[in-house]
Amino acid sequence: MTDTSINAQSQTGEAQFGDYFALLKPRVMTLVVFTALVGLLAAPVPVHPFIGACAILFIAVGGGASGALNMWYDSDIDAVMRRTQKRPIPAGKVTRDEAFAIGITLSVFACVFLGLATNWFAGGLLAFTIFFYVVIYTMWLKRWTPQNIVIGGAAGAFPPMIGWAAATGGVSVESVLMFCLTFMWTPPHFWALALFMRNDYDNAQVPMLTVTHGRRATRVHILVYTILLAILAVGTAFTAVGGPVYLAVAVVLNALFVKGAIQIVRRNEDMSEADNFAAERKFFKLSLLFLFAHFGAILVEALLRQFGMGGW
């Protein structure tokens, strides 16, 4: 992990604010912020708007810190993958040392101030999430096992639990359900990406399922996880965070998601890669809508309950 060539290259360009901001993985941060906000607002304990805004800000900063530390450690992989070659470190805009310093500083800042603004359980849960993403997933699982994204997916599933904890000071069945929703969504989402980006993982020698078990096995795994996800997602409609609005969204989207997974698994391996990639890209894009729509429906149900209209 001491790739001096990357550090030398990093000093050939002048970093702009956008380069440092890119270290925080803003697109991933959007998902973190949204699911954390839903967890916060769906909680049965009201939170003062200012405290709630501070909580979401610190959770976002913590998520960004994780991204910076991920780019610091994975800079060697990023340099050989087409999808990541333009990130700040391999692009020669930011050094690895700078990324590490930013990640550590923001991690401490986010966890301490979330604890001060809300409660120390939430601050501790955010700290554990950062540790899990950086150490358990990035440093260990990602380069060791094809189940990397399955187990490592827990890191991206914690934000709604952190939002809930910021409001309540603890964990409940409802927050665990929101965790499970994201956790089960992660494998088919990333495996779909890996199917049409397989050469990247081959070149980087990352043991993604597509590399270790092949595309056919990956497609079968996507279908299995999608069916399990559908059961969980629709079942959540009949819990305290669900309701008629959520049920309608869940039924429609999970039907489309399962249909997409079936289309992928039925693909003929002799077909052109362009045809295969079209289905996989479509499924990947649908997976992005899938999670945002489900959490959006949970948020709508929470807001309706405040006016005595939500739930069953």
From TrEMBL:
<feature type="transmembrane region" description="Helical">
    <location>
        <begin position="50"/>
        <end position="73"/>
    </location>
</feature>
<dbReference type="InterPro" id="IPR006369">
    <property type="entry name" value="Protohaem_IX_farnesylTrfase"/>
</dbReference>
<dbReference type="InterPro" id="IPR044878">
    <property type="entry name" value="UbiA_sf"/>
</dbReference>
<feature type="transmembrane region" description="Helical">
    <location>
        <begin position="176"/>
        <end position="197"/>
    </location>
</feature>
<feature type="transmembrane region" description="Helical">
    <location>
        <begin position="94"/>
        <end position="115"/>
    </location>
</feature>
<keyword id="KW-0472">Membrane</keyword>
<dbReference type="InterPro" id="IPR000537">
    <property type="entry name" value="UbiA_prenyltransferase"/>
</dbReference>
<comment type="pathway">
    <text>Porphyrin-containing compound metabolism; heme O biosynthesis; heme O from protoheme: step 1/1.</text>
</comment>
<protein>
    <recommendedName>
        <fullName>Protoheme IX farnesyltransferase</fullName>
        <ecNumber>2.5.1.141</ecNumber>
    </recommendedName>
</protein>
<keyword id="KW-1133">Transmembrane helix</keyword>
<dbReference type="Pfam" id="PF01040">
    <property type="entry name" value="UbiA"/>
</dbReference>
<feature type="transmembrane region" description="Helical">
    <location>
        <begin position="283"/>
        <end position="304"/>
    </location>
</feature>
<feature type="transmembrane region" description="Helical">
    <location>
        <begin position="244"/>
        <end position="262"/>
    </location>
</feature>
<keyword id="KW-1003">Cell membrane</keyword>
<keyword id="KW-0812">Transmembrane</keyword>
<feature type="transmembrane region" description="Helical">
    <location>
        <begin position="28"/>
        <end position="44"/>
    </location>
</feature>
<feature type="transmembrane region" description="Helical">
    <location>
        <begin position="218"/>
        <end position="238"/>
    </location>
</feature>
<dbReference type="GO" id="GO:0005886">
    <property type="term" value="C:plasma membrane"/>
</dbReference>
<comment type="subunit">
    <text>Interacts with CtaA.</text>
</comment>
<comment type="function">
    <text>Converts heme B (protoheme IX) to heme O by substitution of the vinyl group on carbon 2 of heme B porphyrin ring with a hydroxyethyl farnesyl side group.</text>
</comment>
<dbReference type="GO" id="GO:0008495">
    <property type="term" value="F:protoheme IX farnesyltransferase activity"/>
</dbReference>
<feature type="transmembrane region" description="Helical">
    <location>
        <begin position="121"/>
        <end position="141"/>
    </location>
</feature>
<keyword id="KW-0350">Heme biosynthesis</keyword>
<comment type="similarity">
    <text>Belongs to the UbiA prenyltransferase family. Protoheme IX farnesyltransferase subfamily.</text>
</comment>
<feature type="transmembrane region" description="Helical">
    <location>
        <begin position="148"/>
        <end position="170"/>
    </location>
</feature>
<dbReference type="GO" id="GO:0048034">
    <property type="term" value="P:heme O biosynthetic process"/>
</dbReference>
<dbReference type="InterPro" id="IPR030470">
    <property type="entry name" value="UbiA_prenylTrfase_CS"/>
</dbReference>
<keyword id="KW-0808">Transferase</keyword>
